[in-house]
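Bench notes, afternoon.
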Amino acid sequence: MADTVQQVKDKLSIVDVVSQYIKLERAGANMRARCPFHAERTPSFMVSPERGTYHCFGCGVGGDIFTFVEQIEGVDFKGALRILAERAGVQLVYARGEKREGTDRLYELLDAATLWYARALADNAEARAYLQERGIEDATVRAFRLGWASDSWSALSEHMRARGFSEKELLDAGLAKKSERGGLLDRFRNRIMFPIADSAGRVVGYSGRIFGAKASAEAPKYLNSPETALFRKSRILYGFDRAKQSIRKYGCAVLVEGQVDLVAAHQAGWANTVATSGTAFTPEHAALVRRMTENLVIALDADEAGFKAAIKASRAALAGGLNVKIAEMPQGKDPAEMLLADGADAWKRAIREAKDIITFLLDSLEMRSAGKKDMFRRAVESIVLPFIADVRSGIAREQYVHEVAGRLGVSESAVEGALADLPREAAAAGSQTGGGREERESGTLPHVDRRARGAFSLLLWQESLERPAVDTARFARELEESIGKEALEAMRALPESEREALRFFAERLYGAHAHLEREAQALVTILRRERFAAELAEATMALKRAEAAGNEEETAALTARCALLTGEIAKLSQLL
């Protein structure tokens, strides 16, 4: 596996990988772009082709090609390796004797189960006819690898056990469960199966829709895989692996609630559609979407349950920094039914005419209040204002305050006062997670000033080059003499991610400097002078105390010390 990692690194540069996701532009020896991991107008995301690394000065993320793919695709290291190996044309080969255990085995098991379910669907004319009635074409069925779980109690488990998978692996993958007698039972029976993949396209779980004459009337309409090592409902969006490129291309994601809704939307050409799987839309989902776009359109059912789900999803999306709009479906229809009955043009129109979340809420609540102003006001205070409090943009928040004030017929200051009275859970959470980048930097090295950190960043950058422009050994020695061994060792002990950030900082600051050796000498000279100045201030204070106490011996020694330091400071000043 180690050889495979190196082969991938040899074939793919950091620029090759990052440029597939964001537009890079030249910035001296580096490349830069607007960071894909947080919203910004001024590019602060830097890529170093020479070192094969990246770093964002806005949000602090950084790493190599593997960490970049992990972060932007939302996968683990092995998922990133798989994605990059495919792009590089490198076959994943395990070292001799290296066992494919743990998650690798679970991925293999789930892929084999997906094939099993797909073959079963091909043999089930009744289930295929149902999908055709819902408007799902055969090509779409194959593309999404839809399947069928029969009424057998243990056919899948027996088949996989015969293929060498263990009982524990079947349980860990969420494909089976224990019976009351201790035997193994298939978790899914009498269901049309929708495989759910992670960002790298690997099947991690399923959503099964009840179907067939033998299905129990008491069984839930949809049954999802349980939480497993691979399947985390709060972090995985159905269809995201297929939608992410279209989301980035069109600058917008569309959220639907059901698997059939998503499949129908993709079939209609809206490949930027994603869906939740057995859970509400979460902040983790919002973070996943935000890696691709800041814009989300929510298209849920038009009934009361759909309205409440849209409110919950919008709140999480706004808190996650997304711009949210609501696409209204015809009453009594979900997205799949709308597409089947009214066609792709009607769906396109609904998405294009989606309302901003605040406008949607105000319109809906005003209609539900039936002209009762007090009821409308209370609804706005309890439902709309918490949404506005979640909005990150100050300008957008001010616009919403203006709109709410106009709808209620009150002053904007009254709305702002009501907003100020709301509990600030989000703000409190933010204060608990730490401050901004500058606070983190200053807190990391409390005894090292900014100038010393700048000199150290220059040293780090030069040490990383094959042909440095500075005598790094001498520079390091003089820096230690200037700031002290303890301070330099503290900076040397910083995590690699922070040291890489300092390298980028130095490269950006000194990259165009024509006389780096001279600059390095000037830095250590200034630092030595500052150290002597601090020592002189302490000696002067001590001298005053000795004089006041009438201690002639200590006064003489401190006078000589002050004279020596003053002379050293004068010499260093002449060098600058």
